[in-house]
Specification:
Protein name: DUF2975 domain-containing protein
Largest sheet: 3 strands, antiparallel
Organism: Flavobacterium phragmitis
Transmembrane segments: 12-31, 68-91, 111-130, 136-157
Oligomer: single chain
Keywords: Membrane, Transmembrane, Transmembrane helix
Strand order of the largest sheet: 1-2-3
Helix content: over 70%
Strand content: 5-15%
Length: 171
């Protein structure tokens, strides 16, 4: 169990760091796109470049049209920030003193609901505005499988909590 605590703590900090990075990139991109600071254009405004702060070196590139910016640029950055934040909360469960808790089950529930619902909803809405690549379907399937796995894990945790509560009543 000691190894589980160590690995889960490492994964917690790693995924929390990735969440911060993705949320920072999304908010920095929104800032540059709305203010025009650290933003350059190519091919007569057809493409944009989000530059590193206080430089003219490009960090991220994209097509300069609103559907692309919303669905192919900002949505993946912000939603993967959310994904890594929820993942870090799941990893946090495994190094807590008590494994089966109501809080742990709620973290798992948020994780599986977000993986099952959000990608499908976003892709459904984006379908009307931007062409979808074949890779997008693969990501939806992977998030669906991850959501289903987390659902079953949450069910196991709920059963474990019930057994733990029954055991506490006998003591």
């Amino acid at each position: 169990m000691k190894t589980t605590h160590i690995v889960s703590r490492i994964l917690f900090y790693f995924t929390r760091f990735l969440a911060v990075v993705y949320f920072f990139l999304a908010s920095y991109s929104v800032f540059t796109l709305t203010t025009g600071l650290f933003l350059t254009f190519k091919d007569n405004g057809k493409y944009f470049q989000v530059c590193y702060p206080f430089t003219s070196h490009p960090m991220m590139l994209g097509d300069y049209n609103l559907p692309y910016i919303l669905f192919d640029f900002l949505a993946p950055l912000s939603l993967y920030g959310l994904f890594f934040l929820l993942s870090s909360n799941v990893f946090k469960i495994f190094f807590q003193p008590k494994l089966f808790t109501v809080n742990g089950i709620s973290h798992l529930r948020r994780f599986y609901l977000s993986n099952l619902l959000i990608p499908s909803i976003v892709i459904f809405i984006a379908f009307f505005f931007v062409p979808l690549d074949n890779e997008v379907s693969l990501f939806i399937i992977l998030h669906g499988m991850l959501g289903a796995f987390a659902y079953f894990l949450a069910a196991i945790f709920k059963q474990g909590l019930n057994l733990q509560n029954e055991q506490d009543l006998f003591i």
